[in-house]
Amino acid sequence: MTCKMCKERIKNWQGNDPVCYFDNPAHNWNCATINAIRDIFAPDGWYVELENLPMDVCAIRNDDMTYGLICFNDIDLGDDEGMVGCLYVSWYKRRGNTEALWIIGEDTQPRRPTEKELLAIIHHFKEGKDD
User: Fold this and answer.
1) Quick check: helix, strand or coil at residue 5?
2) CA-CA distances (angstroms) from residue 85 to 35, 46, 51, 105?
3) What are 68-96's pLDDT values in tens digits?
4) How many domains does the chain have?
5) pTM of the predicted model as reported, rounded to 2 decimal places
6) Of 17, 20, 79, 122, which is least packed with CB atoms within 10 Å of its CB?
7) What is the spatial distance between Cα 37 and Cα 43, in angstroms, rounded to a whole number?
């Protein structure tokens, strides 16, 4: 099930075609939704400036790997009960693949996020920049 953002995006680069995260989570490549999540950490598209991350976002770099958390205690993910937790993300350099993407809830086992949840997180951080 290709995500809405991948369907709407135009391929404007040379090289491999995108592989949407929602079509193949283990071998995603340049998924537009996942790129928007990674842009929360690195809006310039490459380098994560740890001291300039938004509130409720943290990251650490180890050589060329980036590991990040987005806390969503105050983000409405659209579920009825409301979830307290975070989104864990890891990726190598700025290549198109995102190695790990997990929702970690207060009382639940880690699981893959839904498109709806990721869009809510993206929307929350985009709104904060437009104010």
Assistant:
1) helix
2) 21, 26, 22, 4
3) 999 887 667 766 556 678 999 999 887 78
4) 1
5) 0.86
6) 17
7) 10
